[in-house]
């Protein structure tokens, strides 16, 4: 079991590294499909934070105008006032019960909207949820109906943004854990015996957890993004090498939940949406316009060459947090290596979406940044705004260097202005 937990965490870290590297290395131009769809600029920026943040944050706007921010890399949660000029640390790595030290240094990258203005923070170490009041204070702790899901709930960009429905049930993307197979006699010997790497599933469930009944129901399924094909070997020194073979254009479906409880799954293969309405009705809407781009072998190679330095950087950071493993022959290390699939295994067309590209606003619209709108040169990101009918009602251009962080009441949107190392939080009007 210990071996399975370690490699589950490794897979999560690799998935996160792949997502971050892909987002930072894409170099295409924005979609121009269906020119009849109106395009406009985002509204004016009305407030900018004075405190610097890390490059990864989760934002929880409150009805008072204040904002809770999970500054993931710096291991702290801040409460900003409505002007964003003043911030108070309400939780950090030394807080009791939160962000406690873990063997694999996994901390929550989420701030989950809960009932009214309360929020949930995932305490991975205790596999529970801290309920934060509007002032960021821990009111009480809730046990998860399925504690093993804590580590998946904590992952932000990989697993989407969970939310509670109007009955307090938590809706989130779960993970299918395949039953263990008998050990492979040809597998390398590890401290855990002849260990076989867990098989990675190609689909993932969207589930609803009821804290009263302790039941967890599957509502929909979606295609899962794999971090890569993994294999493990043992070196002459007895240390272990995990090799990951990556397809740079592999992608999965993305999902979001609207404020009325509707679940939307954006399908990666053809850019259409499957819906689950609050009354249980399942429906599909037509394919949305997308500027499909055929890739030559030269363009595929360019993507690999662009992605390689970012992957090296991300995996080096991931590997630095891996502990040594005690064995009868002394402590052993795990190293991570990576390579790319051959060019003929890479899809011929750029997929429509990438991880973390779908968010829902407070007016029950989806905001989707197509993959071809990432890294668009001198312009900012171009978001498709999609209504409940699956129609792109407009496209909204963001200022250069800004990404969508969240939506607040009263037609407000929060942006992260980042250079990849540090960030500022900005508030703007949607229109």
Can you lay out the helices and strands and say which pair or pack?
Elements: H1 2-25, E1 39-41, E2 45-48, E3 53-54, E4 57-61, E5 67-71, E6 76-80, E7 87-92, E8 112-113, E9 119-123, E10 128-132, E11 138-143, H2 150-153, H3 156-159, E12 163-164, E13 170-173, E14 189-190, E15 193-194, E16 203-209, E17 216-223, E18 229-234, E19 240-246, E20 254-257, E21 263-266, E22 273-276, E23 282-285, H4 297-320, E24 334-340, E25 358-360, E26 366-368, E27 382-386, E28 392-397, E29 402-408, E30 412-418, E31 422-429
Parallel strand pairs: 1-28, 19-24
Antiparallel strand pairs: 2-31, 3-31, 4-5, 5-6, 6-7, 8-9, 9-10, 10-11, 12-13, 13-16, 14-15, 16-17, 18-19, 20-21, 21-22, 22-23, 25-26, 26-27, 27-28, 29-30, 30-31
Helix pairs in contact: 1-4
DSSP strand count: 31
Residue share in β-strands: 25-35%
With strands numbered from the N-terminus, the spatial order across the biggest sheet is: 1-28-27-26-25
* Overall 3D shape: globular
Instruction: Specify the number of helices.
Output: 4
What oligomeric state best describes the polypeptide chains here? single chain
Tell me the Rg in angstroms: 21 Å
> What is the overall pLDDT average?
82
- The helical percent reads 10-25%
Q: Uncertain spans, ≥5 residues at pLDDT below 50?
A: 23-34, 96-105
Decide which structural class fits the backbone.
mainly beta
Major beta sheet summary = 5 strands, mixed
Separation of the first and last Cα atoms: 52 Å
